[in-house]
Backbone:
């Protein structure tokens, strides 16, 4: 039996015709290469998994296949003929449809309208016929076993899981050659309905590209997998012949351990905890407890959307926890705003996730951006000059290796790396003893990364405490004294010291405990 | 640690950074000033009486109202809001100055600050409505405007009585150091306004919240207080204009503020501020206010009708908005080099 599956995987070309063939796809956004060289071949009537870490290029590949972006290089063939969709609608006319992870439904339209967009059935006067829309909508729902959903309901009123099902049904209705499912089970509690539907699609000889980080699920429904790493397709394998460890290794790579930990634990292990979190819940987080000591750097490793955002935003005072208690320096604290978090006991300073929308104040100078949280301290009787701001920002800029000559430029005119340095400098300038750094090196160049690492280390060596999340595991390995792997809102596994290794972390963030040897 | 060379923010070769620092703000302020002078000089061609020094003085005295008013409006716009309650608040200041202060004791100058504080209270309510009740600024301030105007109608029974307080008359009708007092007061007002907006930490906070409220909150800016404050200042400026108008024309009417709403916004926009907040200088706004006043004076001197004046003002606002679109501005900046 196993051998038969094995053979089937091998004989893709013979038993099943190739539905989609992509060769040498490449896409760069400015200097950032999102996809370097991707080859993938999808067989009609089969489910093919796309695996890879955050930032490996999965989303970019999906966007190319659906016509949302155009590749810089490479060719696509659909059912043997040239395929270069310019828009989502054009891709759909070729029978390629996608159920997006971030759902592409129009919230204030009804279920039926969403299912039929953009072509609504029309009445005699050329106006949209609501009766026909409802009829057709309820037919579609019935076909997919979703009679329980009223086609006249406004989509925004449905629970997330039902919205995800609608998104999937709509894609299935439009996919006659290729169906792309991007994290289709993110909001679904069970997979029976979905897998049932997928089998119906494959029976109709539709190729399915299945993207999920849940490996057990992938093994259940997919026959083959393509692994992406750093924008390259590393390998395409039959899932029957690859073990979990093989797959994790392909995802991470046999990296020479240059990311090895070159840092002596600077933690003062016997000191009283600076931050103590007990049973924190809400915003995707389920009952998290940990302690952070002076001089300690705590890394958070997780896939997208495992509750890390909620954790950081609650500790920063931006959102209110549903349950749980936070103590700073042993004092119970309610964190109600970032301003209050900065002032609570020894203070918590937050580096936000989105540099452009939550971080920089584009029209103001870099110096103002750095000193904003401590402006009264830099001012004389509430009056401040640009020179005084430069003087106040200088020391923090130096700590992150930012040239002072950039300080009097509008921060919006600086490079992404310098913007990020300025924002890290701001958290240092606040004088807070605990830093919350959400992906501190996202989208910056190698030199800037090193400067930010050095600043974090120096801060910890002087007794500061740091919690950081990184979408790049090597960064966690390199920087963290201790690491919590989050999965589904909980601490799945904790690592300390030399146990923080990339392979073990990959397994843990995918919810596989036994992965480490 | 090896230092990688920093990618330069500008693609052109050579150091274009200094010229890039001639910000759009500076360009706007200078352009407006130049336009003012040109307008005054060209007015001479129309009528020799125009463009003289006396004429400049007249413009400055008449411009007093708009400069003060648009400063408050400018702060509200800078913070990301809009104040439509200015006409009603001007009238409030004017009516309180005549029917309350002037009717009882025209010499009671010490009651005028109380009038300003009552006006400030109106702004406080607008601010609270915008920040805590999350009513959109333009609905909230319009509602306040209607409430205040109706209350005044009730208070005066439709006919404002009383006399202008002597202090208000003195403010507008005397001379100091050989110049009209309002011009001196105006200079002091602009200087203080500049200190507050460009050299105080509160000014910095206003720029920050107007640029990006979320980012400002994360940076630890006291966003609630800083969103309310500009409405209070704006209302007090309007109250001050009301008192000054009473001193200038020796009486109040229930519609005395009506003609000032559009110009107050126009002055801010012409002065180079972004209508979306976060950008602009008060010196630019002062220029915009003077420019509009000059234009108004010339139009009246030419005997044009008031309606035409409003049409021209409206067209200028539209033109300024078009000009402020980023790409057009970038072009202008390149021409400047």
Residues:
């Amino acid at each position: 039996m196993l051998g038969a599956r094995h053979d089937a995987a091998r004989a893709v070309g013979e038993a099943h015709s190739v539905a989609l063939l992509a060769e040498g796809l490449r896409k760069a956004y400015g200097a950032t290469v999102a996809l370097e060289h991707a080859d993938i071949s999808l067989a009609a009537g089969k489910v093919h998994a796309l695996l890879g870490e955050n930032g490996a290029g999965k989303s970019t590949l999906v966007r190319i296949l659906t016509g949302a972006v155009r590749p810089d290089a490479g060719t696509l063939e659909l059912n043997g003929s040239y395929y270069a969709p310019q828009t989502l609608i054009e891709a759909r006319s070729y029978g390629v449809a996608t159920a997006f992870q971030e759902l592409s439904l129009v919230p204030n339209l009804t279920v039926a309208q969403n299912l039929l967009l953009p072509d609504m059935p029309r009445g005699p006067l050329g106006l949209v016929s609501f009766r026909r829309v409802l009829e057709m909508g309820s037919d579609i729902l019935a076909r997919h076993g979703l009679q329980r959903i009223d086609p006249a309901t406004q989509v925004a009123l449905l629970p997330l899981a039902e919205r995800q099902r609608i998104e999937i049904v709509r894609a299935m209705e439009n996919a006659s050659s290729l169906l792309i499912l991007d994290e289709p089970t993110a909001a679904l509690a069970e997979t029976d309905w979905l897998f049932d539907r997928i089998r119906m699609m494959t029976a109709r000889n539709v190729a399915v590209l299945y993207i999920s980080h849940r490996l057990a699920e992938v093994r259940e429904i997919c026959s083959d997998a393509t692994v992406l790493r750093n924008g390259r397709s590393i390998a395409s394998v039959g899932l029957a012949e690859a073990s979990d460890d093989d797959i994790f290794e392909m995802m991470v790579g046999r990296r020479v351990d240059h990311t090895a930990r070159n840092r002596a634990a600077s933690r003062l292990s016997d000191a009283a905890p600076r931050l103590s979190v007990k049973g924190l819940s809400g915003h995707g987080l389920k009952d998290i407890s940990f302690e952070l000591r002076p001089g300690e750097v705590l890394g958070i490793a997780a896939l997208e959307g495992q509750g890390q955002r909620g954790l950081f935003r609650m500790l920063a005072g931006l959102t209110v926890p549903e349950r749980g208690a936070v103590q700073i320096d042993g004092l119970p604290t309610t964190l109600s705003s970032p301003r209050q978090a900065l002032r609570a006991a020894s203070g918590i300073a937050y580096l936000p996730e989105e540099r452009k929308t939550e971080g920089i104040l584009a029209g103001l100078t870099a110096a103002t951006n750095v000193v904003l949280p401590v402006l009264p301290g830099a001012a004389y009787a509430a009056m401040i000059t640009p020179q005084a701001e430069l003087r106040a920002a200088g020391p923090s800029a130096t700590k992150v290796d930012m040239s002072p000559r950039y300080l009097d430029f509008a921060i919006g005119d600086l490079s992404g790396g310098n913007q990020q340095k300025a924002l890290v400098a701001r958290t240092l300038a606040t004088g807070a003893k605990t830093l919350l750094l959400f992906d501190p090196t996202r989208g910056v160049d190698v030199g800037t990364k090193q400067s930010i690492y050095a600043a974090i280390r120096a801060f910890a060596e002087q007794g500061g405490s740091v919690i950081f999340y990184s979408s790049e595991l090597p960064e966690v390995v390199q920087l963290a004294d201790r690491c919590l792997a989050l999965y589904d809102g909980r601490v799945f596994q904790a690592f300390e010291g030399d146990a923080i290794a990339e392979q073990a972390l990959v397994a843990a963030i995918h919810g596989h405990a036994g992965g480490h040897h | 640690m090896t230092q990688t060379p920093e990618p330069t923010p500008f693609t052109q070769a050579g150091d274009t950074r200094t010229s890039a620092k001639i910000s759009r703000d500076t360009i706007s302020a200078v352009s407006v000033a130049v336009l003012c002078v040109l307008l005054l000089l060209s007015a001479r061609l129309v009528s020799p009486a125009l463009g003289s020094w006396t004429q400049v003085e007249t413009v400055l005295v008449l411009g007093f109202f708009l400069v003060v008013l648009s400063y408050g409006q400018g702060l509200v716009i800078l913070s990301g809001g809009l104040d439509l309650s200015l006409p009603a608040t001007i009238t409030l200041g004017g009516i309180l100055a005549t029917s309350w202060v002037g009717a009882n004791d025209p010499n009671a100058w010490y009651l005028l600050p109380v009038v300003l504080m009552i006006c400030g209270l109106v702004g406080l309510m607008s601010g609270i409505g915008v920040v805590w009740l999350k009513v959109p600024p333009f609905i909230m301030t319009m509602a306040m405007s209607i409430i205040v105007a109706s209350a005044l109608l009730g208070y005066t029974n439709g006919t404002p009585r009383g006399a202008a307080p002597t202090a208000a008359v003195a403010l507008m009708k005397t001379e100091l150091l050989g110049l009209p007092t309002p011009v001196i007061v105006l200079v002091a007002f602009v200087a203080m306004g500049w200190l507050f907006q460009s050299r105080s930490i509160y000014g910095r906070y206003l720029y920050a919240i107007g640029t990006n409220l979320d980012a400002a909150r994360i940076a630890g800016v006291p966003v609630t207080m800083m969103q309310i404050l500009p409405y209070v200042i704006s209302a007090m400026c309007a109250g001050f204009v009301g008192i000054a108008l009473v001193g200038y024309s020796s009486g109040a009417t229930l519609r005395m503020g009506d003609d000032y709403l559009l110009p107050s916004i126009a002055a801010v926009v012409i002065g180079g501020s972004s209508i979306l907040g976060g950008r602009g200088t008060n010196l630019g706004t002062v220029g915009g206010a003077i420019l509009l006043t000059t234009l108004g004076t010339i139009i009246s001197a030419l005997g044009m009708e008031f309606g035409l004046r409003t049409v021209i003002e409206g067209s200028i606002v539209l033109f300024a908005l078009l000009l402020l679109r980023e790409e057009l501005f970038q072009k202008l900046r390149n021409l400047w080099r």
